[in-house]
Input
Amino acid sequence: MRAYHWVILREVAGALDRIEDADTRRFLRELRRARRIYITGVGRSGLVVKAFGQRLMHLGWEVHLADEITAPGISRGDILIACSGTGATELTVYMAQRARRIGARCIALTARSASRLGRLARQTIVLPVPLEARDRAHGIRTRQPARSLFEQTLFVYLDSIILALKDNLGISSRKLRRRHANLE
Output
């Protein structure tokens, strides 16, 4: 089993090393100036971005799942964080189009910068991973099933964003715990 663990860890570490630092700094600046943050993604990418949204809420941001009935209307000053490996997921692209039309800023996290989502976004953060085992995008291969490397890299990257925000803003772990769900 350890050999499989190391396959995954090496692939994720390699992908994280190839993400542009300038993109990450800009992402952090955009988050810090956001009035409200909306998140969207479908499937496993959606699960990952929901975990990120929860952590942003723990840090003190007002966060909404863009497709939830309780989400207020997005407006100028708000950010939509849209995650899609292919950058072509219909619901995610639709929400990015709507957000842009309304004047909200869209940040896309995708493996394909030239995708529909990548072209719609104010900022596109490219996670340089292949989406399929035989996909030679970004000059690397993966031994993992379809899109697993994208979702794993997305999760670790977004958790590193949370850690950077926590440290930069001087938010204690105790303060985060006070905002944690307590009805579970």
